[in-house]
Design a protein that fits this description.
Helix content is 16%, strand content 34%. It contains three helices and eight strands, in the order αβαβββββαββ. Strands 1-8-2-5 form a four-stranded antiparallel beta sheet. The longest helix has 23 residues.
């Protein structure tokens, strides 16, 4: 007589490597992965960097001359980022938030020039209908420095200033005199602009 094979006890049945994942857990994991991918895609789509630059010329003099009270960057007197946004395929209406990433000053000329004439500096954003707001500063300029990385004020959202017809960046400076020769200073401001993207 041929006997039927006895069923293998569940404790002795070969198991799949790692065990079988419940369908619900599998779907949850897939959704989580897709969510992370969507976030990564949104991060790459809804933030753009916009650079703003300007130059100021400090005339030479002696310590008995009138002290400069501001660094006047002509390009900062009327800033309209409409063209920059258009290059990115967006408009001012798409802007959700704007924050400064970094704000630097550097001596462009003369080759051996420095910021020794400057004691401290503060920069402000201004536009019609909005309060003047401090955006970057340096309370003590180091001796011999040719480039300064300003301390950016955290938490300042410049959206109302950037979406206005134009904004200005103004300054206040404490100085110890004027440089011996004409000195050209370049300013570079990098803005992180958060753009409204449907689904992000």
């Amino acid at each position: 007589m041929i006997s039927s094979p006895s069923p293998v006890p569940s404790s002795r049945r070969p198991s799949r490597p790692g065990g079988r994942r419940p369908l619900g857990a599998t779907l949850a994991r897939a959704a989580s992965v897709l969510g992370l991918c969507a976030l990564a895609t949104c991060d790459s789509l809804d933030n753009v960097d916009v650079e703003v630059g300007g130059k100021a010329v400090v005339q030479p003099g002696t310590i008995i001359d009138d002290l400069i009270a501001a660094l006047d960057f002509d390009a900062f007197q009327r800033i309209d980022l409409s063209a920059e946004f258009e290059n990115q395929g967006v408009t001012k209406d798409d802007v959700d938030a704007v924050h400064i990433v970094h704000f630097t000053l550097r001596v462009e000329s003369p080759a051996d020039g420095s910021f020794d004439f400057l004691t401290s500096a503060s920069f402000f954003a201004e536009t019609e209908g909005q309060p003047r707001v401090l955006i970057a500063k340096m309370d003590e300029v180091p001796r011999g420095a040719r480039e300064l990385s300003m301390d950016v004020v955290e938490g300042v959202d410049l959206t109302p200033y950037v979406v206005a017809p134009s904004m200005r960046i103004t300054s206040e400076a404490r100085v110890s005199g004027r440089p011996d020769v004409e000195t050209t200073i370049a300013a570079d401001v990098l803005l992180d602009v958060d753009i409204a993207v449907p689904g992000c």
